[in-house]
Amino acid sequence: MGNRQLVAREILDSPIGDGNRALLSPISRRQLLREPYPYSHSVLATIVRILDFASIVSGSVVLYWLEKIYSTQVWSGKLAAADFTALVVFCLFPKKTSLLAFPKIRRPKAQIRYLATPVFAGFFIYFCLCLVLSTGTASAFYYALLWGGASISALFVERSCLTFCLYQPTVVTKLRRRIAIVGSGETASELITRLSEDVGQTYSLFGAFRDEDKPAGTGSNVGTLDDLIHRSRKEPLHAIILAFQSDETDNDARVRRLAVTLKPVLSDIYVTPNLVSGFDRVLPCESLGDKPLFVIQRRPLSEIQVIEKTLVDFLLACFAIVFLFPILACVAIAIKVDSRGPIFFQQPRIGKNGKEFLVYKFRSMHAHMSDLMAAQQTSRDDPRVTRIGKWLRKLSIDEIPQLLNVLKGEMSLVGPRPHAPHTRAGGMLLDDALAEYVLRYHVKPGITGWAQINGARGELVTLEDLEKRVAYDLDYIGRWSLFFDFKIMFLTVIREVFSRHAF
């Protein structure tokens, strides 16, 4: 369940779920200290699976090399088939993925339980296949033992190195989940105590915050919701727990208000069942033991999906820059010949998690007329646009330098288009004009996007223009996949390079 398991154990063992206000007994506290709360980290689990596969492959390759040297050519071919089949069985054999949870994965017992059954299955298939290939019972058992020994040796070396790395302070810090508590009273205090003292190296307290103007206390880990939003843009935050005292008169209204306020925060947000009622109970629910927990907000992409998208962006951006370099050089020369000023234009934009960055574009306006803060949006037949700039914007060539932003990790090839901080629609700043607008901050902005290829681009004149664009952006976030990104990139070339909406 990823970082959601943190919330699960915290909530289930806290007084929130059943209304019990008693503090933990000394015995239960000692048990928690001996057994830190594990959670499933998708990236770590994927890395471990890849390393296991590489270990079995390396062991099989070494064994095959030895078999080729010391066996006849006929036997060597049969054993190669057995090696490959045993490798496939090991990889496809069902495994107990909960044993990959951190920090459980660091324990030798958990590692043996995870690997023993698939290794034995590979050994058994190897033995059976050797028998079918008529190598003899004794020979079949002998070579199966060799495969098992080679595989176990390779896995032992790999898991020993992995365990050593997982105990390093730097790695532990990267894997630790940071949790913010919003609320006050006994329930919040209990959760704060748990996160501060009982969870070992798995979780840490990001801070305690109140949904009031008055901070929850003094120190670096306390403050208001504005402090939480501000800090979340500078420091990693994985989950937020709403843990205020239950009040039947205004629970729903308070939870809804907090949900709206915390929309800009890139984090999972949870609320316990005692704080919601009625139709709110159709919220997504995660079963945590025998206690449910309602999800108000999830990160749109998992950690492994973020890595997949980032890797594809980086590789394609590198390829595009190399492939388009002659065209980019010609464009740079044309800009310098057409008007005075720099080749590139840099402008502040708002990116993922509300962070500002400088976007790169080919300069399409006269240098002395450029609007750095985008207080005035570009309109059709804008006198500020140069002669060459008109064609650059028409063909969307002015956007190509944003590949540099992709390489820097500030943008993606596909995503919601970033807007300047002072961009307005209907005379209002975009954040103020539409509450759902801030949900676009949950992913990196893109050079192109689902809204652009559907015609929702150009100047934002009315609130309807903004609503249409945000609707497409949120639809993209909800439907994201690598295939969807490739589809949008393909349609961008087909539809948008010669778009009537570009100017």
UniProtKB/TrEMBL annotation:
Transmembrane segments: 43-66, 72-93, 114-134, 140-157, 314-335
InterPro entries: Bact_transf, EPS_sugar_tfrase
Cell location: Membrane
Membrane topology: Multi-pass membrane protein
Keyword field contains Cell inner membrane: no
Top-rank lineage group of the source organism: Bacteria
Keywords: Exopolysaccharide synthesis, Membrane, Transferase, Transmembrane, Transmembrane helix
Domain Bacterial sugar transferase stretches: 309-494
Pfam annotation, one family: Bac_transf
Main location: membrane
Family: Belongs to the bacterial sugar transferase family.
Protein name: Exopolysaccharide biosynthesis polyprenyl glycosylphosphotransferase
Organismal lineage: Bacteria, Pseudomonadati, Pseudomonadota, Alphaproteobacteria, Acetobacterales
